[in-house]
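Dear colleague,

Thank you for sharing your sequence with our group. We've completed the structure prediction you requested, and as agreed, I am returning the results in plain text so they can be pasted directly into your records. Please verify that the sequence below matches your submission; if there's any discrepancy, let me know and we will rerun it promptly.
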Amino acid sequence: MADTPDAEVLLTGGRITPGVVRIGDTVRRPTTASSAFVAELLAQLEQRWFIGAPRHLGLDEACRDTFSYLPGWVPARFQHWTDTQVVAAGALLRSLHDATRDSGLTAGHPVICHHDPGPNNTVLRDGRPVAFIDFDTAAPGDPLENLGYMASTSCVSSKTTAPPAADRADVVTAMLDRQSRNARW
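Please find the predicted structure tokens below.
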């Protein structure tokens, strides 16, 4: 069967929301309890010129959230990340945090955290992290929460050796906190 522009292509890999499909240059997914917040967050990111996230395009005729499709590759599982990729992912995360600072969405917290900025929610182009997807768990928080998660999934999980972290106690504490939260979840 030949692909047509309106054909639904099931996107696999998501662990939380089943039924996510690509139609042409859009991604459609069932609405969730976080849909309204995600739509508001993505609108703010667009207003603040953050290009590392999809755009929320509204609801389709089936009442699914519709997002712009971000071309690239999303790793299906953890893998080795080069130092260059880790640096680019960290810069992308910092840009996300900066785009959410001092907004009406932070509810007294410093930033909005993605809360799952691991490789499985990162779009790569030419091997370089360029965007985050799947903002369902985004919520107000502290940047170290995201950094701890990213460090554990993009650095520690992908390296057989790592430099000493004694001078980075806050990051190590954040990593351990995020792993404990994931285990409880």
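Summary note from our side: The beta strands are 9-10, 21-23, 26-30, 56-59, 64-68, 111-113, 122-125, 128-132, 139-141.

Kind regards,
the structure core
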